[in-house]
Structure prediction request, 670 residues.
Amino acid sequence: MSRESILETAKQSIVEADEDMALEALKQAEESGIDLIDLLSNGYSAGMKELGDLFGSGEIFLPELMFATQVMKVATAEIESRMEPGDIKPKGVMVIGTVEGDVHDIGKGIVASLIKTNGVMVHDLGREVPAQVFIDKAKELNADFIGSSALLTTTMTQQKKIEELLETEGLKGKIRTMVGGAPVTQRWADRIGADAYCEDASEAVKKIMEWINQI
Amino acid sequence: MGKDLVFKALRHEKTDEVPWVPFAGVHAGKLKGYTAEEVLTDGDKLFESLMEVYKLYVPDGMTTLFDLQVEAEMLGCDLLWAKDNPPSVKSHPLHGEKRIPCSCQIPNENSGRLPMILDVMRRIKSEIGDEVALYGLICGPFTLASHLRGSDIFMDMITDPGYVSELIEFCGEIAIKMADMYIEAGMDVIAVVDPLVSQISPKHIDKLLTPTFTSVFDFIKSKGAFSCFFVCGNATKQIESMCKMHPDGISVDENVDLKKAKIVTDQYNITIGGNIPLTTTMLYGSQQDNMKCVIDLLDNLGHQNLIISPGCDMPYDTPIENTIAAAQAVKTPDSVREMIKNYQSVSFDDINVVIPDYNNLDKVLIEIFALDPEQCAACTYMVNIVKDNFNEIKDIADFEVYKYNIREDIARTMKMGITNLPTMCINGEPKWVSLIPGKDELISEVKKAYSLLKG
Prediction:
């Protein structure tokens, strides 16, 4: 079987959220001697990208995205288990969380999963995360990006605090920030000086990949 | 009467005006200085706050209690309370445990916060129920199911749709029971509020949600009340599926293009409500922004089958003057169109306005900078509190009212740097913005200013 056809099977397995198909593509790749990083980047990840685009344009919705992300996680774990540690270098490091006072974390969890499946090391701080913890963790991991989610008009102000702390610590511009959540808008991001506003998970991935290409 | 206007709109009849239904949930508490938690748990404070909404915002219809967590709390979800937000659900009893709760958990009049809520509904009904259409809000079955099950529910929709159907059916029974109790307590409109509906495909809605939701709307209508369906988020693709459940009205937030959505709802002869943006316009915008937003909605949409409302539950800290401006724009669009022109006027330099020398007056000068006191309820209250008590202070105070539809007064308002109306100044200093002082507070401030004047 040709490389193209195996990569296409891998891609489709994600788009169709078909775990059996995903594992079959992996088996075929191994039998054909295809580089597994190639399979991950140009097969499964290409499927995630297409899925993200379909989600962004409203062709698929949250359940389909979450289910396909699960299949992607299985495929990624299978590949990782076949490789030596250090073979897969993360494309970047991100710290993500829902801000202090806010327990809504469905959206943040999806953004984290989707970014992770695109080869970025994501450290999910969970929910109700104080601004200082974002900064401390980002410093500890030497992170490239901080993502914060706020679902309430009153907790949005914590995103501003993250920007202020970055400024104080002299990290503004060194660590790029993205903000999201139902009441958050581009106008808010501009106002607090965040580097990006992302409306949904697929936009977040696009923005991260754009930044990675600039690094 | 405002109530009839809402009824007519929900009966899809032609109306002379467009109804105005502000969603002052926790924001109602701000009007009386109460926290969100106080206003959602203390009946007297809720009642007092709702009466203030009625007084200041001249609603044709109004919500009573806006808290989608009432049902979840009764079913065992832990809540995280906040000063300035409705509570959030922080634990999900069915997380990791796929089961249907016992029907013994279906609430009754004595469950959770219901005794307080039903009591306030009855009091509000008896106080203003003849004038205003009262909305009772219940948590939609899908959002309630997600409160119970957590985000697992999204995976269940694909891996075990039968379970999801059953869970939603159970939540539908709760919705029907809640609607029944709220209608008995005097609610005219039952709004099924289900923000999560915007997150799933029309196919999933049709398959898993429609049977239950339709039976909830049918039940509400069978009890002689109106039924509405509130959704948040970008529900553009879901609107048609929502229409097929046959509610009397649908309400959407700013993520939906109301003009395009109305084309769909009109085909089903369903009334659409919305969608003043909550944060950019109501919370962080100016009075002008709010007026312009409402006028744009009115000018771009057919007026039949239309209700003007905020996109969803108003943020706690929404400036009161912004809501007053929105109300004014719905009630008197023609005069507000003129005001907007005035706001946009480049300059009033040709008008010579003399600002008094406030430190050297004989008497204290009370100045009210208003929109249009004849038509803006808050402005009228502000003017009346001074007029009604003027006898007691006439020897030490003078009193002027400026209106934002008179060029000279606009120039004065601008020169004074006053941006929110109505504002009451004492000797040139803004003392009350949108809030109406009590008699004692007013007299005390005037006396204090008089002593300062006389050194």
Notes: Residues 80 and 88 of chain B are 5 Å apart (CA to CA). Chain B touches chain A through 31 residues (CB under 8 Å). The first strand of chain B starts at residue 61 and ends at 63.
